[in-house]
Design goal:
The complex is a heterodimer of chains A (229) and B (336).
Chain A lengths: L1 H19 L19 E5 L2 E5 L35 E2 L2 H12 L4 E5 L3 H5 L7 E2 L12 H7 L3 E2 L5 E2 L5 E5 L7 H11 L7 E4 L2 H7 L7 H8 L7
Parallel strand pairs in A: 3-9, 4-5, 4-8, 8-9
Antiparallel strand pairs in A: 1-2, 6-7
Chain B lengths: L1 H18 L3 H6 L4 H5 L14 H12 L4 E2 L6 H6 L6 H16 L10 E2 L7 H5 L11 H13 L14 H16 L6 H10 L4 H13 L18 H15 L17 E7 L5 E8 L6 H9 L5 H7 L15 E4 L6
Antiparallel strand pairs in B: 1-2, 3-4, 4-5
The chains are: A alpha/beta (229), B mainly alpha (336).
Chain lengths: 229, 336
């Protein structure tokens, strides 16, 4: 008896909300990652990471990531597969990569942007390895490759057999930073099958309202969640 | 090529440690110098006996900065690969390389130019030292990973680093720190390689590995799990010696008839209708046995555990499902 009353009440509430044009109250369960997954949880370097979506169905982007027509060059449309055999990835593949590789210590999510952009907000769990640091002219490049698990060989070059699997991203389809990072890594001999490319980058991550690392401040800067358009 | 020479040195010292005889002395009695360069099979230590002296030898060889033999002495591996060649010069060079690279037991036959490599610890190695991360596979993979970890050469030290542009340097250092935080989870391979580097005893390694396995921190290949559920580090360490030999290009793959009798071993000869006879061997699992240990016992190489596992699928669900008292069929050498 009590149960049926409750059901009717909540049904009525939804009706009223829809008729009067008000957004329904924000509840985490209403904006899920997928039908079967509300959010993703993983532990990375001893810290728990939760990736979910902005719960407000009316939220829109504000600021930097709303531009449609950045000048090209330099902001040109980038290929999905800039290096042959580097697998393209979407958000679910990226989240799966964090769980199956990064959390297991066998992979690193690489943010190839410059530190200034990384500091404004990044995908949770990412490590900032700016594309410029992977250029052969950087005297630190070999140390970075070694930190990724490449083993320097006595006669020059590297053995990448134990190297980490990488997922590389940058600002989005209009930014060439992840492309340059992937090309530099491939030129250094990094096996393409150990690299993945999230071409959508921050642009696509934000348009889906996905969790941004860097706290509420970063999220406010990058993806303003507004109830009213 | 250079790597091959380094391994020759490792094996040279290994063999010298085991036999206690300098190789150069032995080679004098061998008519064909090439035949002498390939040492005879080394008797692997029994799994129950901690093979400490052998590993001290391996580590002594591995930890020494491996001398880089210059091109002048370099034809050795080629000479070994092309076994048909009877180029005495190449053989002499190989011998010289072997002596130069590790034993320290005899003067080189002909002094060869040797370049000492820079072995300085790089900044990156202090900041981040990612361990290899293979999946828990078979013993071969585990062993190969440990050897790879141990023989990895250090990256160039940062002499050029001072010239870096400050912004690039700051970004690079931040990236290195970020990557250092992305610490990989410990692995069986990483633990053993680290302990061997530190010169730890076999007993220490056994305790270390078993504690980590007990806490489920590391994955262990099934063939290394004993009938009591412990990790058989003795077999793992024995396999390491075999792999060091492999790396030096020595034939190790041929299985040998090591056991014909002994505790738990039964041999049945069945007469066939055509007058021939066939041998069937069985082994009753004892406490402390692992599939790897049994393969080592019968074939001289833990890597053959899969043959025993496959022959006993009826009673073994997985390679680590061994129980004391189980009677296993041991396939004949011809069936491997």
């Amino acid at each position: 008896m009590l149960v049926s009353v409750k059901v009717r009440l909540s049904g009525a509430a939804v009706c009223i909300a829809a008729l009067s044009g008000f957004a329904p109250p924000a509840a985490g369960q209403e904006v899920r990652l997928t039908e079967s997954m509300a959010e993703a949880r993983l532990v990375l370097n001893g810290r728990e990471i939760v990736i979910g979506r902005t719960p407000n169905p009316e939220a829109v982007l504000r600021g930097e990531f709303t531009k449609t027509s950045r000048a090209c060059p330099p902001f040109c449309i980038q290929p999905m597969t800039p290096v042959p055999d580097v697998a393209p990835a979407g958000e679910l593949e990226l989240i799966g990569f964090l769980q199956d590789h990064a959390a297991q210590g066998t992979g690193v999510l690489i943010d190839a942007r410059l530190p200034e952009w990384f500091g404004k907000g990044a995908i949770p769990g990412a490590v900032n390895v700016p594309f410029a640091t992977l250029d052969p002219s950087n005297p630190f490049r070999d140390q970075i490759l070694a930190a990724l698990g490449a083993r320097p060989l006595a006669g020059g070059g590297f053995d990448f057999s134990q190297a980490m699997t990488l997922m590389v991203y940058c600002n989005g389809p209009w930014s060439d930073q992840s492309v340059r990072a992937l090309q530099a890594l491939a030129a250094a001999g990094y096996p393409p099958e150990k690299m993945m490319h999230y071409r959508g980058g921050m642009q696509d991550w934000l348009i889906l309202g996905l969790t941004v690392a860097g706290g509420p401040e970063a999220e406010a800067k990058l993806a303003t969640a507004e109830g009213q358009p | 090529m250079k790597v091959g020479l380094i391994y020759l040195g490792i094996v040279g010292s290994l063999v010298a440690v085991i036999t206690g005889v300098p190789w150069v002395t032995l080679l004098k009695d061998v008519p064909d110098p090439l035949a002498g360069v390939i040492p005879p099979p080394v008797t692997a230590p029994a799994p129950q006996e901690p093979p400490a002296p052998v590993f001290t030898g391996v580590m002594a060889a591995l930890e020494e900065p491996a001398p880089e033999v210059t091109r002048a002495a370099a034809p050795a591996p080629d000479a070994l690969e092309a076994t048909q060649t009877d180029d005495a010069t190449a053989a002499a060079a190989a011998l010289a390389a072997l002596v130069v690279a590790g034993t320290g037991l005899a003067d080189p036959v002909e002094p060869e130019p040797v370049a000492a490599p820079a072995a300085e610890q790089p900044v990156a190695a202090q900041v981040a030292a990612p361990a290899p991360q293979p999946q828990a596979g078979d013993i071969d993979q585990t062993t190969a990973a440990i050897l790879a970890a141990l023989t990895g050469t250090a990256p160039e030290s940062g002499a050029a680093v001072a010239a870096a542009d400050p912004a690039l340097q700051a970004m690079s250092v931040a990236a290195l720190n970020g990557l250092a935080n992305a610490k990989p989870a410990p692995t069986l391979e990483g633990l053993v390689a680290q302990a061997l580097r530190e010169g730890q005893s076999d007993a220490y390694i056994d305790a270390l590995v078993n504690e980590a396995a007990g806490r489920k921190e590391i994955a262990v290949p099934g063939a290394l799990v004993t009938a009591e559920g412990k990790v058989d580090t003795a077999v793992l360490l024995a396999d390491l010696v075999g792999k060091a030999q492999d790396a030096a290009g020595q034939p190790r793959s041929a299985p040998r008839e090591v056991v014909t009798g002994g505790d738990g071993v039964e041999v049945h000869t069945v007469a066939q209708a055509d007058g021939s006879s066939q041998q069937f061997r069985f082994y009753t699992v004892a406490r402390g046995d692992s599939l790897g240990a049994i393969a080592e016992k019968f074939y001289g190489d833990a890597g053959y555990y899969l043959a025993i596992f496959e022959a006993n699928r009826a009673i073994l669900s997985t390679p680590d499902a061994l129980n004391a008292g189980q009677r296993l069929v041991i396939p004949g050498i011809s069936q491997l």
